[in-house]
Amino acid sequence: MQIPYIVAALRKHRLATFLIALQISLACAVLCNACFLVVQRVQSTQMDSGIEEAALGTVKLSGFTPDQAADLNARMLAALQGIAGVEAVSVVNMVPFGEPVASAGVRLDQDGKHFGGVIDFYVGDAKAVATFGLQLLAGRLPQADDYTPIADTVPANPVVLITQTLASHFWPGQNPVGQQFWAMGTSFRVAGVVRHLSVAAPGGGQSADPDWAVFVPAVAGPQLVGKYLLRGRPADIARIVEDARAVANQTATDAVLDVEQSRTVPALRASYFNSSYVMALLLLGVCVALLGTTALGIVGLASFWVTQRSKQIGIRRALGATTGDILRYFQIENFIIVSLGITIGMLLAYGLNLGLMRFYELPHLPLAYLPVGAVALWILGQLAVLAPALRAAAIPPMAAIKAV
């Protein structure tokens, strides 16, 4: 076995060995955490909002007074319903990936001792559930008499639709239908459970989970006005929203069209997650640059050692060492150095993740990322040392001895 001789040789070059191992350890720590962050970002962009996004668009108006609500809603609903291809129009307070409007802390007991978390409250008229396309799992949908006027932010003591994720968090192992919770000075009773309903700003607010949202039925009026949800065929929805913008400008001359919020829901999603895509690309760029720098360091060190050891290589070749023996020597040497760096790097990766968890509230780094990072660096090390090792193995014995 060559390992004892390789280790003995590395001891004579402690500084160079330590520096390249340190570079590899830093690469391992950053690579594991960066890959984890990239996966987290990409997964967040693929979340299920619970609504039929491809068929939905929104129009938002502002700059009007509450006493205009009834007339404005009537005019806008009639005008928007008249657009070719529109299947349904409803009044809502917000949509996923749009502007957050209503969120509050929830208590699971009337005395307010059991805090459930911060959730989003979607409020919509009698057509909103169907327009959103929410999928009912248990209980019932709101009935006609469940739609009541809004007192302040929500109706007084309303029934709600709650997501299955939120139901499991509030009442684990229990039937959520009929349960109550309290927020904003009123009580809410669960009428039904839907599969998903994303908060308006997933990952950006105080909600611990993207599905921490409820739907509250209400009658459109002074507190529910100006935000309109349109439904149509996915192939037509972009054109429908463009037409809706024009209709809004003609119909509501006494209001201001919010162009940024008057878009298709897929466009709102793309805009909302744009920063996540940019961050993922930046992190991937950092990983590539770091791996490239590490590979160059390995190549440089191996090339330097090949030059230094030309005489020893020539002597070994003269004594019968084959090309494969020389090649294996450098590969094993590189494997030992990389393994040392990976061992230190795994500890650094764990420590770096603890710091990110503490200061940026990121989740714990799964252990599966450590072996993935180790394998990537082992492969990188073997590829990087291959060219210098092949050059060393190709040195003729006499030429190597005479060159020194």
Automatic annotation (TrEMBL):
<dbReference type="InterPro" id="IPR003838">
    <property type="entry name" value="ABC3_permease_C"/>
</dbReference>
<protein>
    <submittedName>
        <fullName>Putative ABC transport system permease protein</fullName>
    </submittedName>
</protein>
<feature type="domain" description="ABC3 transporter permease C-terminal">
    <location>
        <begin position="289"/>
        <end position="397"/>
    </location>
</feature>
<dbReference type="InterPro" id="IPR025857">
    <property type="entry name" value="MacB_PCD"/>
</dbReference>
<dbReference type="Pfam" id="PF12704">
    <property type="entry name" value="MacB_PCD"/>
</dbReference>
<keyword id="KW-0472">Membrane</keyword>
<keyword id="KW-1003">Cell membrane</keyword>
<feature type="transmembrane region" description="Helical">
    <location>
        <begin position="277"/>
        <end position="307"/>
    </location>
</feature>
<dbReference type="GO" id="GO:0022857">
    <property type="term" value="F:transmembrane transporter activity"/>
</dbReference>
<feature type="transmembrane region" description="Helical">
    <location>
        <begin position="335"/>
        <end position="356"/>
    </location>
</feature>
<feature type="transmembrane region" description="Helical">
    <location>
        <begin position="368"/>
        <end position="390"/>
    </location>
</feature>
<keyword id="KW-0812">Transmembrane</keyword>
<dbReference type="GO" id="GO:0005886">
    <property type="term" value="C:plasma membrane"/>
</dbReference>
<dbReference type="InterPro" id="IPR050250">
    <property type="entry name" value="Macrolide_Exporter_MacB"/>
</dbReference>
<keyword id="KW-1133">Transmembrane helix</keyword>
<dbReference type="Pfam" id="PF02687">
    <property type="entry name" value="FtsX"/>
</dbReference>
<feature type="domain" description="MacB-like periplasmic core">
    <location>
        <begin position="38"/>
        <end position="221"/>
    </location>
</feature>
<comment type="similarity">
    <text>Belongs to the ABC-4 integral membrane protein family.</text>
</comment>
